[in-house]
């Protein structure tokens, strides 16, 4: 099972943090910090794998990939295969790239919800759901289309406060 | 430049407006990005929170704006700040009919809330409604939330809908419904146990994606209960076959591989199903072999599948052909330049090594390279492999390596792990006690605070019990070498507490035993320790007890006790210590050094820490005295059962204080045992001696008034109790031994099965043509060479080979004939272990040069050593029942009132720790069995010497 997916930039700022088991905000921050601490201490040209027992508990492993200014990190247990997870990161990034045409850090910052939509299509409840970036793109586009159309259909603005006053 | 590029993008996006982020959000992100310090960032985020708090409650916020606020909330929380004020708004948003807002709301709640949050109740209704929606995207969004936010209590509310969705027309929905059901199963197996058959059904889904999703829950189910799914083996194999033959639609290809992720999952499942099942495994051989052949080893994902094949092959019933294919792949992995592949190769090697040990043989150099690699992950993996490969013949090299590595790491978690592994290996495979002690010293020195105290006690016991039966000289040599090394080490700054405890104990027990060091020298050192570690009360207690023993031994030997001034001042200082335990020890010390030689010899006999102590549970030696007292008009003793009311309470108090006394006030249970061992007294004899009078003083209080007690009395009292209540269950130890024998017998049988194979390997290493022999030996010795740090020299290889040939510590005698002359190289063979040699005396040196002898003698010795261990462990465990029995007799009511309160606390705290002894005993039993297995079958030890290192 996949325990967490993180995207952290090279300055240690989290750009995406998704934990498949609930953790408190403080704990999440602590984990992100310690993961970043380990990542930046790793040299170039070493393996993309790490044992993460000390951070995430027994039998945890971590696979990361460094793209430009971002680290993509997947944390998982012994039920996954490291090389395969490495390819999963590849799928994720490829999809982002297709989605944003040459993805960069800012796309990720500003399209937080879209990022989550994509990730949710790949990993669902901690299990790998889909690994074909074409399929993922199809699903994501369908969602955006529907979101856009639902926006234009509903002419009367239904705001939260309006709902509240009822 | 990066910055400029991104600014360009920002502008482009701003004009695009495609994602509807406002300038505000943009500014926020930018200012956070530019923040110089964490404090500045916090300030920015806090002001953002204030803004959001204000804005979010404004009436009639446009939809798009509201969405952005929620996203900003999520962003703020991701940065580690509390956004809980906005949770309710996110929840409200999920109720919205607009898909955009609903999805945003769902996203926010999955990130904000946990399954037990109070607000979930407000969402469940919406989820139920959305699961029934006509729009499958809404259904998918709801399923996503279901996975994250439904807990055991709310599962029934959504379960019917989710089950219904398993038959939805859209495969995307079916997939997610399966995943949701799987999640329910993980959270509460009982609530969906009747639905498990659905997973089997969905395995036959028309859509390969759905089938692939079904593998996740099935994998979990099969992990838990293999036997119920054996019937699926054929199905899984046929699915895998179809995939491998590219019968799936092209859209499932990934990097030219047909559905590799599904292949991996299937291989994992097959590995589970085929484990130890010959019949099931036979179904799999063909398809796994096919995949081995077809897999593209140039892509990353191809290698992932190959790795999974190796895992599968090494898990199922072995097949020679597949093992060969696996070995080929491993060779490719290890030769690769990619660290990732090397890592996988090492890992795969670790899996395969159990089945075909000779595989490692081919890759020794690659393994050594990985050990030298700067990549920490790879290094650790390699140590894991070495750990799996350790045998009694290569243990020295491997543990040596591990310790070297351990010294240089900062990560305490891993350091603890590797330290405990070193200890474990050393305990299991130690070629000699001497080596064991040296190794333990190093581990303690560098990771003493991280190892368990049990390890320290094992070490002490080893030194005390030594080689066992006949060989008394060897024992005393061992001890003097230990004493010598400790006296050298003791001066070093900042030693770990546990290590100091061992040192103090050994110095106390054996510091002056061989007469090499004078008592005043050793006591001086001990005083230095107590001074230097004045914050560590346990170390000080150990030091004081050690001092006491040294003085007693002096007295017993008829020498005049020469108390150094610093020692005197230490005693004075500690007699006013805040620690009652320390105080008591010092008073005991003072009381005991005033006694005559005969008495002290009874209290603290030399080198008797491992001797059994007989206990007179009925205190029959007191009968005369009791009789006298009764005649003088003392109250008779009323047994607990005959007492009532008020008396019960005081008895309870007495019980507590009694336990307290026996605990000797130290939280560590094993530590307490040490004291008891030290204070050995042959009970019931010596009725007339002064020492017994002292005891009687103590006993008197039991019948006296509660207030009647003096410090002197309490000292002697406690010391007598310490000695009296130790029980050594003789039956217990013999039971343990026989059990262990049984276990080892079983293990032995399995060992015999493989030993011909091993012998074959050894023969192939040494028995071939001269050329191959040379190759084998030069590679075979790379490890010892590396460890002695001469690896760099590639020139002069002929001499190298000569040295290498003799480097192994214990070449089997029958194979020696094939090698170069060896006798001359005796010294060089010991060379890498110079530290070891330092403390070896001539006879032991000789024996290490004649490895055959060491091999045959040391094995039973170690056995002996460990077989004794559980017995004494047991005696520690048995103490407690006996102590509570004793307290029934209301022995120390005199002390009871004074210490009741604190006693209560301490016993409460101390008891659980005492009971934790149980598992330890089991551990040591298991270990004992293992050690026996290693030692009992000498045939397994010698012939496979070189292979052992890497085979």
UniProtKB/TrEMBL annotation, chain A:
The keyword Transport applies. Belongs to the adaptor complexes small subunit family. It comes from the Eukaryota. Keywords: Cytoplasmic vesicle, Golgi apparatus, Membrane, Protein transport, Transport. This is AP complex subunit sigma. Its main location: membrane. It is found in: Cytoplasmic vesicle membrane; Golgi apparatus. CDD domains: AP3_sigma. It holds the Pfam family Clat_adaptor_s. Residues 1-146 form the AP complex mu/sigma subunit domain. InterPro entries: AP_complex_ssu, AP_mu_sigma_su, APS3, Clathrin_sm-chain_CS, Longin-like_dom_sf. Gene3D superfamilies: 3.30.450.60. It is a peripheral membrane protein. PANTHER family: ADAPTOR COMPLEXES SMALL SUBUNIT FAMILY.
UniProtKB/TrEMBL annotation, chain B:
Residues 704-738, 765-831 are annotated as: Disordered. GO terms for cellular component: AP-4 adaptor complex; endomembrane system. Keywords: Golgi apparatus, Membrane, Protein transport, Transport. Residues 709-723 have a biased composition (Low complexity). It holds the Pfam family Adaptin_N. Residues 790-800 have a biased composition (Polar residues). The keyword ATP-binding does not apply. GO terms for biological process: intracellular protein transport; vesicle-mediated transport. It comes from the Eukaryota. It is found in: Endomembrane system. The keyword Protein transport applies. Residues 58-593 form the Clathrin/coatomer adaptor adaptin-like N-terminal domain. Adaptor protein complex 4 (AP-4) is a heterotetramer composed of two large adaptins, a medium adaptin and a small adaptin. Belongs to the adaptor complexes large subunit family. Subunit of novel type of clathrin- or non-clathrin-associated protein coat involved in targeting proteins from the trans-Golgi network (TGN) to the endosomal-lysosomal system. This is AP-4 complex subunit epsilon. It comes from Hevea brasiliensis.
């Amino acid at each position: 099972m996949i325990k967490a997916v993180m995207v952290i930039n090279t300055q240690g700022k989290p750009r995406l943090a998704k934990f498949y088991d609930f953790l408190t905000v403080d704990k999440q921050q602590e984990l992100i910090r310690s993961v970043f601490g380990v990542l930046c201490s790793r040299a170039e040209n070493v393996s993309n794998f790490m044992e993460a027992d000390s951070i995430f508990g027994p039998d945890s492993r971590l696979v990361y990939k460094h793209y430009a200014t971002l680290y993509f990190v997947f944390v998982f247990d012994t039920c996954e295969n490291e090389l395969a997870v490495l390819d999963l990161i590849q799928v994720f990034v490829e999809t982002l790239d297709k989605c944003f045409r040459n993805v960069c850090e800012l796309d990720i910052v500003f399209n937080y919800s879209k990022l989550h939509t994509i990730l949710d299509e790949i990993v669902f409840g901690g299990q790998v759901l889909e690994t074909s970036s074409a399929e993922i793109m199809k699903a994501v586009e369908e969602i955006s289309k529907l979101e856009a159309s639902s926006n234009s259909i509903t002419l009367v603005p239904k705001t939260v406060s309006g709902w509240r006053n009822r | 430049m990066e910055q400029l590029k991104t600014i360009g993008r920002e502008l482009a996006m701003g004009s695009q407006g495609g994602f509807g982020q406002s300038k505000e959000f943009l500014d926020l992100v930018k200012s956070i990005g530019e923040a110089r310090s964490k404090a500045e960032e916090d300030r920015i985020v806090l002001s953002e929170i204030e803004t959001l708090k204000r804005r979010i409650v404004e009436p009639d916020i446009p939809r798009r704006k509201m969405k952005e606020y929620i996203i900003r909330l999520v962003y703020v929380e991701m940065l580690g700040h509390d956004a809980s004020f906005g949770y309710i708004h996110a929840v409200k948003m999920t109720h919205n009919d607009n898909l955009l807002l609903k999805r945003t709301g769902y996203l926010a709640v999955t990130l904000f809330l946990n399954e037990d949050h109070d607000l979930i109740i407000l969402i469940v209704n919406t989820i139920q409604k959305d699961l029934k929606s006509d729009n499958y995207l809404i259904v998918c969004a709801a399923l996503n939330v279901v996975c994250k936010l439904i807990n055991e209590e709310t599962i029934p509310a959504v379960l019917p809908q989710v089950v219904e969705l398993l038959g939805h027309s859209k495969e995307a929905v079916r997939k997610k419904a399966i995943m949701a059901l799987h999640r329910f199963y993980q959270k509460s197996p009982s609530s969906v146990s009747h639905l498990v058959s659905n997973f089997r059904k969905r395995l036959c889904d028309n859509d390969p994606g759905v089938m692939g999703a079904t593998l996740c829950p099935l994998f979990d189910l099969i992990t838990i209960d293999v036997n119920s799914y054996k019937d699926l083996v054929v199905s899984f194999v046929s699915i895998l076959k179809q995939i491998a033959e590219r019968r799936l639609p092209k859209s499932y290809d990934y990097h030219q591989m047909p559905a590799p992720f599904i292949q991996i999952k299937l291989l994992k499942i097959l590995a589970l199903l085929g484990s130890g099942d010959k019949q099931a495994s036979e179904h799999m051989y063909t398809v796994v072999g096919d995949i081995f052949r077809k897999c593209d080893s140039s892509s990353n994902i191809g290698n992932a599948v190959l790795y999974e094949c190796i895992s599968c092959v090494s898990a199922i019933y072995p097949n020679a052909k597949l093992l060969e294919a696996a070995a080929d792949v491993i060779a490719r992995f290890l030769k690769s330049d990619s660290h990732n592949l090397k890592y996988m190769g090492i890992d795969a090697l670790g899996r395969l090594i159990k089945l075909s040990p000779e595989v490692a043989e081919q890759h020794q150099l690659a393994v050594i390279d990985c050990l030298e690699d700067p990549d920490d992950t790879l290094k650790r993996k390699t140590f894991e492999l070495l750990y799996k490969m350790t045998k009694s013949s290569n243990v020295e090299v491997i543990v040596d390596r591990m310790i070297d590595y351990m010294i240089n790491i900062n990560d305490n978690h891993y350091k603890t792990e590797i330290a405990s592994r070193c200890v474990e290996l050393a305990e299991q495979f130690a070629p000699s006690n001497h080596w064991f002690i040296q190794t333990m010293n190093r581990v303690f020195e560098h990771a003493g605070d991280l190892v368990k105290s049990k390890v320290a006690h094992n070490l002490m016991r080893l030194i005390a019990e030594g080689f066992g039966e006949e060989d008394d000289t060897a024992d005393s040599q061992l001890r003097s070498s230990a004493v010598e090394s400790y006296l050298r080490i003791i001066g070093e700054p900042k030693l770990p507490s546990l290590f100091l405890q061992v040192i103090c104990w050994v110095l106390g027990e054996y510091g002056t035993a061989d007469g090499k060091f004078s008592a005043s020298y050793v006591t001086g050192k001990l005083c230095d320790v107590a001074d230097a570690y004045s914050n560590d009360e346990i170390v000080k207690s150990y030091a004081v007890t050690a001092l006491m023993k040294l003085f007693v031994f002096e007295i017993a030997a008829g020498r005049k006790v020469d108390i150094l001034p610093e020692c005197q001042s230490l005693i004075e200082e500690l007699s006013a210590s805040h620690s009652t335990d320390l105080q008591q020890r010092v008073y005991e010390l003072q009381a005991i050094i005033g006694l005559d030689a005969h008495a002290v010899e009874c209290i603290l006999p030399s080198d008797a820490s491992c001797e059994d102590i007989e206990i007179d549970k009925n205190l029959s030696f007191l009968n005369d005295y009791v009789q006298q007292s009764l005649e003088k008009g003392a109250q008779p003793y009323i047994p607990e059962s005959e007492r009532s009311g008020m008396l019960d309470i005081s008895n309870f108090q007495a019980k507590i204080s009694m336990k307290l006394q026996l605990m000797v006030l130290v939280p560590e249970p094993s530590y307490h045992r040490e004291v008891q061992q030290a204070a050995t007294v042959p009970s019931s004899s010596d009725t007339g001696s002064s020492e017994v009078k002292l005891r009687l003083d103590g006993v008197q209080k039991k019948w006296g008034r509660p207030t009647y007690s003096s410090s002197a009395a309490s000292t002697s009292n406690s010391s007598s109790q310490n000695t009296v209540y130790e029980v050594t269950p003789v039956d217990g130890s013999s039971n343990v031994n026989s059990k262990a024998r049984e276990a080892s017998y079983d293990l032995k049988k399995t060992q015999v099965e493989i030993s011909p194979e091993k012998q074959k390997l050894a023969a192939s290493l040494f028995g071939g043509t001269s050329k191959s022999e040379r190759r084998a030996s030069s590679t075979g010795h790379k490890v010892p060479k590396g460890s002695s740090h001469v690896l760099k020299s590639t020139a002069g290889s002929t001499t190298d080979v000569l040295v290498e040939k003799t480097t192994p510590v214990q070449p089997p005698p029958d194979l020696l004939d094939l090698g170069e002359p060896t006798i001359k190289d005796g010294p060089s063979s010991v060379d890498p272990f110079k530290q070891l040699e330092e403390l070896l005396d001539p006879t032991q040196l000789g024996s290490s040069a004649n490895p055959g002898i060491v091999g045959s003698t040391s094995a039973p010795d170690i056995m002996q050593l460990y077989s004794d261990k559980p017995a004494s462990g047991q005696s520690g465990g048995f103490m407690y029942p006996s102590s509570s029995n004793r307290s029934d007799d209301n022995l120390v009511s005199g002390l009871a009132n004074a210490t009741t309160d604190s006693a209560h606390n301490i016993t409460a705290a101390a008891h659980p720790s005492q009971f934790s002894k149980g598992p330890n005993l089991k551990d040591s039993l298991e270990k004992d069995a293992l050690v026996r297995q290693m030692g009992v079958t000498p045939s397994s030890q010698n012939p496979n010497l070189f292979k052992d290192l890497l085979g």
